Amino acid sequence: GDKAFAQFLTDEIQEEKKIQKHKSLPKVSGGWELEVHGTEAKLVRKIAGEKITVTFNINNSIPPSAEEDTQEQQKPDEQEPELTSTPNFVVEVIKDDTKQTLVLDCHYPEDEIGHEGEEESDIFTIREVSFQPTGEADWKDTNYTLNTDSLDWALYDHLMDFLADRGVDNTFADELIELSTALEHQEYIKFLEDLKSFVKCQ
């Protein structure tokens, strides 16, 4: 059984490498520096007196696909629909002269398809906003967290503009999907390779 499993994994790894779009991770425009630790990625950008970091994790970032719909329409020779990784991401804005960090928890809404009529709909939304003490690893649950569900639209728009001024806009969000998808695929191939070595190990 293990031999067949290992053989299956070998074939699967070859297939995945064939469809791999990026041999190296795509860059995000706008002078962001990328740090990757396993499944977590951090993008950092410094602008006048501020440091902006965007952190995301590719685990569980691929939305469940509506497979029932696609299978009937799929012709036999067509590729499977491409998987896209749309992770939640956290934006931290740190000003040099304060001890607080503004933290914005953003995500890609799943029901994006419904917004086609709207002009220039944002492809990501801000879910929560809070202040956290700068430099502390653990965030406190005791700090007030603003949930945007009940937020005044004008304030929400200002928050979106505030992010856009710091380079976190639709273009960035698109490139983040591209980067996250490539990273997810790279990690998936690595996982298959590790699994193969593990299975073959007697």
UniProtKB/TrEMBL annotation:
Transmembrane segments: none annotated. Keywords: Acetylation, Adaptive immunity, Apoptosis, Cell membrane, Complement pathway, Cytoplasm, DNA damage, Immunity, Innate immunity, Membrane, Mitochondrion, mRNA processing, mRNA splicing, Nucleus, Phosphoprotein, Secreted, Transcription, Transcription regulation, Transit peptide. GO terms for cellular component: cell surface; extracellular region; mitochondrial matrix; nucleolus; plasma membrane. It is found in: Cell membrane; Cytoplasm; Mitochondrion matrix; Nucleus, Nucleolus. The keyword Cell membrane applies. Gene3D superfamilies: Mitochondrial glycoprotein. Its main location: membrane. This is Complement component 1 Q subcomponent-binding protein, mitochondrial.
